[in-house]
Amino acid sequence: MRIGSAKQSYAADAALFDSRTQWAWVAVLAASLLAFPFVANEYWLYLACLVAINIASTTGLNLLTGYTGLVSLGQSAFMGLGAYTVAILQIRYGTPMLLNLLAGGVVAMLAGVVVGVPSLRVKGLYLAIATIAAGVIAHFVFSHFADLTGGSAGLSVPPAQVLGVVLDSSFKLYWVIVPITALLLIGAANLFRTRIGRAFIAIRDRDISAEVLGIPLLRYKLLSFAISSFYAGVAGGLFAYFFRAITPESFPLIMSIFFVGGMGTMLGSVLGAVFMTLVPEVLKLIVGWLPLGDSAMLVLSPVRTIVFGLMIVLFLIFEPHGLAEVWRRIRRLFHLWPFRT
Amino acid sequence: MTMKKRTFMAATAATLASLSSPLLAQAQKKAAKGGPAEDIVFGASMPMTGVFAFAGIAIDAGIKDYLSILNESGGVEGRKVKYVPEDTAYKVDQSMAAFKKITSQNKVNLYYADSTGFCKAVNPELERHGGILMTGASFAKEISNAQKYPHQFMVGPDYSEMVAILLQYIAKTKPGAKVALVYSDTEFGRDPVEAFRTDTQKLGLKIATEIVTPPGSVDVSAEVIKLRRADPDYAIFHGYISAPIPEFINQARGVGMKTQFMGTFWTMDNSTVMRMGPNADGFMGVMPYRYYYDTEGKSPMLEKIRKMRPEYQATGYMQGFLAAMLLTEAARRTLAAGNELNGKNMKIALSSIRNFDTGGIIGVPLSIKGNSIPIGRVYKADFKQQKMVPASDWINLTQ
């Protein structure tokens, strides 16, 4: 049983991991991520990359909605902007991958600042509706500026190259996508150890009080939009390199991911992305194992979709704080065992 | 939260975590190794759920039926064809996951793709893999570019060619007619717009108007007014399955318009057209295949299908059936020539097909040159008979 960890300095209080056990688990996770490509087949590597891209995008959205309390439905538009920027740079100029990703993030960030302006006047549902406009405008631009975006047919992206290695398989892309996502996650987690992150949380909890405390709402709300869109832009760029074909319809709404994972926690972004990406695949595996013969797919595919939807609804009903809270409860159970929480 | 809820949530999370372990991959690999090595594997990213499920279910049935006929008659050069489909819910990421899963567990040579987005996304992967020939549900013009998509082809005309077939029919039936194009604001809808503009000019037809609508829009009264003002002789719908076509036609008929309405392949299933109600009578469109109930001419395959499945089979079924037929024919020709079964050789074999008899699935013998098969026929709805009946002869754009 672990009864607590005494924190004797501010640094210890602000530390991301507060015990040796946690560091040990982080080391295990890092080792597993390093070993994964060597034990997994192409299918699982594909899913790992997809999960990582979704984590990057969801983390951005979580920064904005989960931490700052600004509801946005424009995340997919920013992903699209990042993807198109990366694709155009790669096709036309063949600039290095990391530079393209950075440019994708910056373009999305600038658009995010513009879209974030209404957040100074409107909140909640009204802001959500205002941000939908970003999606509509982005879709229009992607479909109609055909000289640049390839119009409705979209763009085919050549494979990226890093240090002369052509990144044309999930195995190779894994070594770029997962570290970038890890960096983005670490960056986001550290953000909340700074004044900026705490200002975001203060705005979420009560924006008027935050302003009274000396937090300039204009600057911080736009900053939140900017960082969130940057994350989406980079995720979109990774998406472009991963799928190597983008069209105006490649970027659907991704709202539900972090609701399931848990708003306002880094773990929520990760677990939400893992859940939403892997559960349909896991359900397919389960259906495949059932001894129902050739007609199993025909009969059980709709059932599987219903089960997936039902699982999301059940999580929202029984655990509105998401999978992150479930995880915390499991940890607490082990910490306090044999006592009950 | 009660203990019960907690236990439920913890158990669910733990189960999911354990199930998603990569160890599963190893188990699957082992299972795959147990299968007979000589089988030709036919993979499919099939939309059994989602917005395109109506087609996916029919296509799946068509592929299964053809492969069962083929396997019963000895397979491809003595090798059985094993069909491995995966549901995709018509989502590109899931289609890609299905592709990765199927190809990592089987030595796949033939593949069916469910969407244009997936055909594009998987193209670099196909080139890297090298061993697969693919076709699918997409009729996008871009996929018909054989240089860009060397390991793919489509089982019929692309969308621009479908519109061209309709325009040829119009030009022949009513020279100089005024034609309108009504399309959805999607990649699917916009596909034939350019070709429509150039082909109408080439054939001496006049463009009455072009109307673009949101996909699946319900209220089309403003668009109907625009169409009424343009007063076209023909209006071609593209980029829809059904809605808003019935609403469009009902409103147009309500204001006394005499325009002849037309559709492209995915609108042309018998049940889709007849669901429009009495106003469907006379609705025309292009079909690359014969309908299930067509008895005209000699069509042994259609007879076989009717024997296997006494109830009506949708047009998607015919598409899946023919897709399986052409993919396996390419494999057969490759093996018969003593070549390795890979994407390049199978594409060469496919392109060697001349005057191929589909057993009546297409009413004329087909020859394959590029990535599309630009053959189709105009059918017309007979609401009294509840059937689509031929309105033209087979139109081959290569002739």
Brief summary:
The complex is a heterodimer of chains A (341) and B (399). Chain A is mainly α and 341 residues long.
Structural description of this entry:
The complex is a heterodimer of chains A (341) and B (399). Chain A has 15 helices and four strands. Chain A is mainly α and 341 residues long. In chain A, strands 1-4 form a two-stranded antiparallel ribbon. Chain A has a two-stranded antiparallel ribbon with strand order 2-3. In chain A, helix 3 (42-67) runs antiparallel to helix 11, helix 5 packs across helix 11 and helix 13 (266-289) runs antiparallel to helix 14 (296-318). In chain B, helix 3 packs across helix 13, helix 6 (159-173) runs parallel beside helix 8 and helix 13 (315-336) packs across helix 14. Chain B is built from 14 helices and eleven strands. The interface between A and B is large, with 56 and 56 residues.
Blueprint of the fold:
The complex is a heterodimer of chains A (341) and B (399).
Chain A: H1 10-14, H2 20-39, H3 42-67, H4 75-93, H5 97-116, H6 124-144, H7 146-149, E1 155-156, E2 160-162, E3 165-167, H8 170-191, H9 195-205, H10 207-212, H11 217-243, E4 245-246, H12 256-261, H13 266-289, H14 296-318, H15 323-336
Helix pairs in contact in A: 3-8, 3-9, 3-11, 3-13, 4-5, 4-6, 4-11, 5-11, 8-11, 9-11, 13-14
Chain B: H1 3-19, H2 23-33, E1 40-46, H3 53-72, E2 81-87, H4 92-105, E3 108-113, H5 116-129, E4 133-136, H6 159-173, E5 178-184, H7 187-190, H8 193-202, E6 206-213, H9 221-230, E7 234-238, H10 245-254, E8 260-263, H11 270-274, E9 284-287, H12 300-308, H13 315-336, H14 343-351, E10 375-382, E11 387-396
Parallel strand pairs in B: 1-2, 1-3, 3-4, 5-6, 5-7, 7-8, 8-9
Antiparallel strand pairs in B: 9-10, 10-11
